[in-house]
Amino acid sequence: MKQALILIFVMALIAGCKNNEDLDINLKYDENLSLEYDQVIDAYQQLARHYPQAKFIEMGKTDIGKPLHLFMISKNKDFDPASIKRKGKCIIMIINGIHPGEPEGTDASIQFAWDILRNKDEMQKYLDNSVIAIIPVYNIGGALDRSRYYRMNQDGPIYKGRRRNAKNMDLNRDFAKQETKNAQTFAKTFTYLNPDVFIDTHTTNGSDHQYTITLIATMHNKLDREMGLFFKEKMLPDLYKGMTDNSEYDMIPYVMTFNRGDIKSGLITYNDLPLYSTGYTSLFNCYSFMTENLVYKYFPDRVRSVVDFFTQVIDFTSNNAAEIRALKEKADEAVKSQEIFPIEWKLDDSQNEYLVFNGYEYSYIETPITGRRKGFYDHDKPWTDTIPYYTTYKPVTTVARPYAYIIPQAWEEIALKLMNNGVIAYQLKEDAMLEVESYYIDDVTRSQRATQGHYLNNSIKVHKTVQAIQYYKGDYIIKVNQHSNRFIVEMLEPHAPSSYFAWNFFDSILEAHDFYSVWGFESHFLELLDQDENLRTEFDQKKMDDHDFANDPVAQLQYLYQKAPVSEIEKWNRLYPVSRLAKEIELSLY
Ligand SMILES: [Zn+2]
Fold first, then answer.
1. What is the CA(102)–ligand 1 centre distance, in A?
2. Among 95, 147, 157, 191, who pairs with 135 as Cys (CB 3.0-4.6 Å)?
3. How far apart are CA 291 and CA 234, in angstroms?
């Protein structure tokens, strides 16, 4: 009996299995089908039961009520991010199904996870230096609603999910403001993992060309300087080369053209603002990618190309784990005392590289139904050419680091949102009059079209003044000495493009405050002029010098209003409520 038990134990060890349950995972991408949501979850549950290196965890709620799952693969069953990092291992985070009509990553991730766990092509070796964390499906609400009529121009799978989530939000615009439970749970998960590498999987339409897979890599200029260099000089070239050498799917940067629609004018790196997944994750010193498969390519090929990309990423990450870890640790530390924060970027079109691109000629036909002239990419006329490639961005707006931001508790929602992203917040223990830098909103344009239920504020013009403001016990103090510094600044500086102000969280401050009429102050102004000799002289002089002014009673009253003590009530007008404490001061906090 004892020998039999030992034999079973040894056999289990050889198989590397937790139990002997036969796996019953039927990936169907070869049949142009993507697994349904329940089948996806079942597949991961089976893998987690079968293999000791796997764990399937519920991370929190999503808008549809179902939990957001995380599937982790780690050697020696170590699933604790802090302990994983102490061992010098990198964490690669993958997220799928933000847009469930673009599901290649969903199926590719199961294939990839399974391949590693069963040690296909000795892939287990990657686990010596890397840990994988997969969000199987992010937009669960959208994934549960499938139709063959979603994304009609896409070559498979037959049934596709809906783009928007249960709250009708596009989750790939919700990474900064986080108004969905999906985004809130994602932020907690991302903060918990603090991964080294992040991959988000998508499908794109637009111009047709010969590539099955394209890649958005976060702007290298936006990363910590040394990380950015490593990314641009080493990681990206290796990944593109790896796809050329080891995959049948050559990869090209995402086709974002220099001149709209004209591929030969060149490609540019995408300006990934923090509202997008890669823009958000890269704020935390993470190498962030978005795969964008081309809709016109057949689904099984798209899935295989993503599996190959995952493999290239884990191969590179494992081979360079020590350098990746060291650079990130250094950057995570350096950002805590970073002094200047760029909040707005512009493409530098004065410098570019070149890349070889395989495209199709653009031609025109007459359509059979309406007879209209229609453009199309002619697959019978392929072309190969060397085109410019622009990857350099310059900061156009920067801000200096304050010691801290102060968020009055009336805006507690903002403090809580920050805290959900790992930001540490303190609160004032007692009331305090503090000298702060405050912003006034001088001008703002409201977008005409709704985005995510918002009419975004853009072209935001501000000016800054120093003044004393009364704060109260319980108001929030956000010190800018944190790993999340860049997120804090991007969200709290009102003129940053993905800020809470841009997303309308502070719009009430743009409305009229205490109403006044300058006519009502006329007798008060007379008193003021009687008491203030200098002001009377100034006022009389201005009337003599300025003919229009002399004939405009409203302008005269406005002028006196601005000079009168009564104008102090103006200090609330378009005052952005989050202030900056420029220098460190003694505060009693809890
Ligand atoms: Zn997408």
1. 6
2. 95
3. 19
Residue 216 near residue 204 (C-beta atoms within 8 A): no
In angstroms, what is the span from residue 533 Cα to ligand 1's centroid?
A: 68
Distance (Å) from CA 465 to ligand 1 centroid: 42
pLDDT, tens digit, for every residue of 37-55? 999 999 999 999 999 999 9
Question: How far does residue 49's CA lie from ligand 1's centre (Å)?
Answer: 31
445: CA distance to ligand 1 center in Å?
Answer: 28
Domains of the chain by start residue, with CATH: 2-336 (3.40.630.10), 401-511+576-581 (no CATH), 518-572 (no CATH)
User: Ramachandran region of residue 474, left (φ > 0), alpha (ψ -120 to 50) or beta?
Assistant: left
Quote the ligand 1 centre to 53 CA distance (angstroms).
31
What is the Cα–Cα distance from 68 to 56, expressed in whole angstroms?
A: 11
| Amino acid, res. 34 | S
Residue 9 predicted with pLDDT over 50: no
The pLDDT tens digits for 328-378 are 999 999 999 999 999 999 999 999 999 999 999 999 999 999 999 999 999
CA of 68 to the centre of ligand 1 (A): 19
> pLDDT class for 3, splitting at 50, 70, 90?
low
pLDDT above 70 coverage of the chain, percent: 95
Q: Where are the alpha helices (DSSP H) in 390-475?
A: 412-419
Read off the pTM.
0.92
Question: How far apart are the CA of 92 and the centre of ligand 1, in A?
Answer: 20
Ligand 1 center to 24 CA (angstroms): 30
To which H or E segment does residue 220 belong?
none
Q: How far is the CA of 205 from the centre of ligand 1 (A)?
A: 10
Predicted pLDDT at 12: 46
